[in-house]
Design brief:
By secondary structure, the protein is α+β, with helices and mostly antiparallel strands. The chain is about 55% helix and about 15% strand. It contains 7 helices and 5 strands; from the N terminus they run ααβαααββαββα. Strands 1, 2, 3, 4 and 5 form a 5-stranded antiparallel β-sheet that branches. The longest helix is centred in the last third of the chain and has 26 residues, at about 175-200. The protein starts with a helix and ends in a 10-residue tail after the last helix.
Length: about 210
Amino acid sequence: MELRDHWKVVIHHKWFVLGFTLFVGAAAFFFSLYRPEVYKATVSFDVFAVNKTATDEYQYGSYYDLKAAEVFTQNVMSWMMTPAVVVDIYRAADVGYAIDNIDKFTSRFRGKQLGAQNFTITYTDTSRTNAEKLAQGMTQVVENRSETILTSESGEGVFSVQGNEPVIVKSNFGSTTTTAVGLIVGLVLAIILVYLHKYFVGEGNQQSWL
């Protein structure tokens, strides 16, 4: 088929295409108006080396300290994918939780390593109050756990993790943008349905729903 033929197919079903596009656009508009509020929170953490054991056995001590901090940071971030740690965060935050799906539950908090000694944890919540509580609970669990997870010969923590004030922002999806996306999606779906109808039913069937 040439481009002219495709255009004729769409024009032949123009009222269906127009109506379906407007329907999806209207649905997207009302969804943007009545959807629950969503807050995105980010908590940043800094990792500090403490209680280091003095040694002259290697020349590049600072380099190895940095690499050790990098590995330790990755280990701390992996805690966010551990169900027991996630449960501890909710309990420390005094926020209710339900585990319907383990994979979804353990992907609640997403970590990102920014450097050898700093990382961020990002998550979303429909309540700003709960988002703040979770940030406090997370900071408490991470700081306490980091003091005991790796210790020196004297039993003291080798690394210390310090959480910073969380940054919490309300996710803003404007009605205009959402409606525009809905219209585009509706138009594409309408054209796909037209061609499916043409393929399975044919143009000559008078009982067609298009």
